Amino acid sequence: MIKFLIEKEFKQIFRNSFIPRMIIMMPLMMMLIFPWAANQEVKNIKLSVVDNDRTTMSGNLVRKVSSSGYFILNSVTGSYTDAMKDIDSGSSDIILEIPADFEKQMMDDKHSTVMISANSVNGTKGTLGSSYLASILNDYSAELRSDMMQNLSISAVQEPRSFSIVPEYKFNPRLDYKVFMVPALMVMLLTMITGFLPALNIVSEKEAGTIEQINVTPASRFQFILAKLIPYWCIGFVILTICMGLAVCVYSIIPVGSLLTIYLFAMIYILVVSGMGLVISNYSDTMQQAMFVMFFFVMILLLMSGLFTPVGSMPDWAQYITILNPLKYFIQVMRLVYLKGSGFFQMIPQFLSLCCFALFFNVWAILSYRKSS
Amino acid sequence: MTEEYVIIAENLTKKFGNFTAVDHITFSVRKGEIFGFLGANGAGKTTAMRMLCGLSHPSDGKGIVAGYDILHESEKVKQNIGYMSQKFSLYEDLKVWENLRLYGGIYGMKDKEISIKMDAVLRSIDMQSEKNTMVRDLPLGWKQKLAFTVSIFHNPKIVFLDEPTGGVDPITRRRFWEQIYSAAASGITVFVTTHYMDEAEYCDRVSIMVDGKIKALDSPQELRKKYSASGMDEVFQKLAREATRKGD
């Protein structure tokens, strides 16, 4: 008898004018546009330079900064007040002030101070911008020092001992944001589609009145819920496959780990979100209500999943909350498999957590579906 | 309990908070009978019917439908009944044959059985040419005809019809009653709610519900005699005048 119910769900989905298109369009949009936009690398920082020195050395410094690729030289002014005006009007993000006797100090004392002030309304831009700038300045001062060493072969000043750190970025050597974001975006997409569609499904039958007709039949709650789940399961696999295909074609991002592991985890994860959607659908009386409630939860889950901000840098209380966030586990898994190539046995904790969520939501969905009142 | 009665209600009651929608109703319906369940809007007809179908738990009293207790064996009751609601809840985005197939399948019919029976019933209601039509494209009268066919497709012992003829013209209603008669002739007990008094005349027996209570129960002829009325309409007017509840 379940066969007939599943058949009906599939027919309804494919006859819907909207759902099949969404299943194709959403992955395309998400995978083609979002990885470029959701980029946390800070570029195009607008820079105002206050050059009080106006010497060759200060000129070289400005050239060095503006040729780095991170900064757009907005203006070179003579006073800090003018530069502040640029900040106020929004045409500038960061100010580099070079003191009046910069070159002289460098020649005499081998030492000088410049000032960086950053507009930190956008915190990331402010901190990252000033740290980029600082590292460029360090480079420059090292260059100057070695130049001077050559010129003044006999130097009275002992060269300060220094060491430099050369980082090696494991698993993502070029620190490419896309490699990091794309697997997580796939999770986000699966959550949106296989979560929202079931949330709207049962409640739409309530609105149409067809649910009552099903309720007077001997179809059991388990069969009814299972028949609702299975189509979304298939849709989830289709979406995941499209996404992984696009990741390879467009970004050449290929999982280091095995595809089988990804599909295995996805299988459980789709059950989790679809189950959650069905629970919400069961408690809602109208599509609007279901939509808003689902939106509320998905929003929280996304923000607390580590998609954009690492869970590890959240305050303790927030980290405790994320224990209850299924998204967190699946995003971890996707990133681990994609970047690090982790195998199933290294991710048993995540697997067990997801299984618990799947069981919890689907049992709840079956129990909260009432055939009679 | 004898085999003769397929529906037995004893003091069946449904309360919603302080409001008693159905107030201790007691009646029984014979096998093969067309039983009319009359009442004004808001009298409690639909609530009573929903309890008998196992959609709503009674607050008090008991009911036996097709030999099963409506409270404890509601799933067994459901296996033996058909139900057609006011809204004729067919799936609008499924075709005519797909609706029949779905409900046949849910009641445990096999593919082959379904396809054989489908041709027969579509022929009998003259809808063979509409087999592949999407339900949403059918006119209201046809939807109604199909909804009734779907509700008796699995050959239930009893079919519950909740105001099945709302919103259609008298000719379509007349034809619909012909369908009901032929179902009754094949041995299906018909339990029908309505507020059209001309339809009451077609029933073997009718009960009239006022403010959640059954005020009268007999054959239309007997009721007319008892209330010295020329038609069921007049009987109804006389009883309904006592109502204090506002219709919805």
Fold topology:
The complex is a heterodimer of chains A (373) and B (248).
Chain A: H1 2-15, H2 19-37, E1 45-51, H3 56-66, E2 71-77, H4 80-89, E3 94-98, H5 102-109, E4 115-118, H6 123-151, H7 177-208, H8 210-215, H9 221-251, H10 259-283, H11 287-303, H12 316-322, H13 326-340, H14 348-368
Chain B: E1 5-16, E2 19-30, E3 34-39, H1 45-52, E4 60-65, E5 68-69, H2 74-79, E6 81-84, H3 96-106, H4 111-124, H5 140-152, E7 158-162, H6 170-185, E8 189-194, H7 197-200, E9 205-210, E10 213-218, H8 220-226, H9 232-240
Parallel strand pairs in B: 3-8, 3-9, 6-7, 7-8
Antiparallel strand pairs in B: 1-2, 1-4, 4-5, 9-10
Helix pairs in contact in B: 3-4, 3-5, 5-6
Word description of this protein:
- The complex is a heterodimer of chains A (373) and B (248).
- By secondary structure, chain A is of the alpha/beta class.
- Chain A has 2 domains: 2-38 and 174-368, no CATH class; 45-151, abc type-2 transporter like fold (3-Layer(aba) Sandwich).
- Chain A is built from 14 helices and 4 strands.
- Chain A has helices spanning 2-15, 19-37, 56-66, 80-89, 102-109, 123-151, 177-208, 210-215, 221-251, 259-283, 287-303, 316-322, 326-340, 348-368; strands spanning 45-51, 71-77, 94-98, 115-118.
- Chain A has a 4-stranded mixed sheet with strand order 2-1-3-4, sandwiched between helices.
- In chain A, helix 7 (177-208) runs antiparallel to helix 13, helix 10 packs across helix 11 and helix 13 packs antiparallel against helix 14.
- The longest helix of chain A has 32 residues, at 177-208.
- Chain A is elongated, with a radius of gyration of 29 Å.
- Chain A starts with a helix and ends in a 5-residue tail after the last helix.
- Mean pLDDT of chain A is 87; it is low at 153-159.
- With 248 residues, chain B is an alpha/beta fold.
- Chain B has a domain at 31-43 and 82-240: Rossmann fold.
- Chain B contains 9 helices and 10 strands.
- In chain B, strands 6-7-8-3-9-10 form a 6-stranded mixed sheet, sandwiched between helices.
- In chain B, strand 1 and strand 2 (19-30) form a beta hairpin.
- In chain B, helix 3 packs across helix 4 (111-124), helix 3 packs parallel to helix 5 (140-152) and helix 5 runs parallel beside helix 6 (170-185).
- The mean pLDDT of chain B is 89.
- Classes of the chains: A alpha/beta (373), B alpha/beta (248).
